[in-house]
């Protein structure tokens, strides 16, 4: 799946990519009940389990589910922190190499234009980087 927003110029900007068994949500919208600016779309045939905010709050009463949610949220926070750090401090080739090391399945599962958007580069730059490998 992909999470993205469309900017004022009509360009799709990929915020995140997801594989099986990952949780996908706009956490800000979930917590604040504000309308989301993001779209979430399946890139492959997908089975989705949807859960309401009320049901998530009820899960907090089940210790094992509460612990799972905490762990998933911590892992998500770490991943997003690393992603932001990479995006603002690394050249494109290093961002690509980190993606290759951290999420090699992304390169097999997502089309090049989505990977380029996720990395914050053009399709042409991604193509040049891949040819260098």
Task: Note down, in words, how this protein is organized.
The structure is a single chain. This protein is mainly α. It has seven helices and three strands. The chain has helices at 27-32, 53-59, 63-89, 92-102, 104-109, 112-119, 123-132, and strands spanning 2-6, 12-17, 39-41. The protein has a three-stranded antiparallel β-sheet with strand order 2-1-3. A hairpin with a 5-residue loop joins strand 1 (2-6) and strand 2. Helix 6 (112-119) packs across helix 7.
Can you give the helix content as a percent range? 55-70%
Distance between the termini: 26 Å
The largest sheet, given as strand count, sense and whether it forms a barrel, is: 3 strands, antiparallel
Order of strands, main sheet, comes to 2-1-3
Mean pLDDT: 92
Output the structural class: mainly alpha
Q: Kindly state the number of beta strands.
A: 3
**How many DSSP helices?**
7
Low-pLDDT runs of 5+ residues are none
Q: Report the order of strands and helices.
A: EEHEHHHHHH
Radius of gyration: 16 Å
Percent range for β-strand residues:
5-15%
Shape: globular
């Amino acid at each position: 799946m992909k999470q993205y927003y469309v900017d004022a110029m009509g360009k799709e900007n990929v915020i995140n990519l997801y594989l099986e068994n990952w949780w996908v949500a706009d956490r800000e919208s979930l917590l604040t009940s504000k309308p989301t600016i993001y779209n979430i779309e399946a890139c492959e045939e997908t089975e989705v389990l949807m859960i309401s905010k009320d049901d998530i709050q009820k899960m907090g009463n089940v210790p094992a589910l509460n612990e799972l949610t905490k762990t998933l949220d911590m892992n998500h926070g770490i991943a997003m922190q690393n992603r932001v750090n990479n995006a603002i401090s690394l050249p494109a080739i290093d961002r690509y190499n980190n993606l290759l090391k951290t999420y090699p399945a992304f390169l097999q599962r997502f089309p090049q234009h989505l990977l380029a958007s996720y990395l914050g580069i053009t399709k042409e730059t991604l193509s040049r980087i891949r040819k260098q490998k």
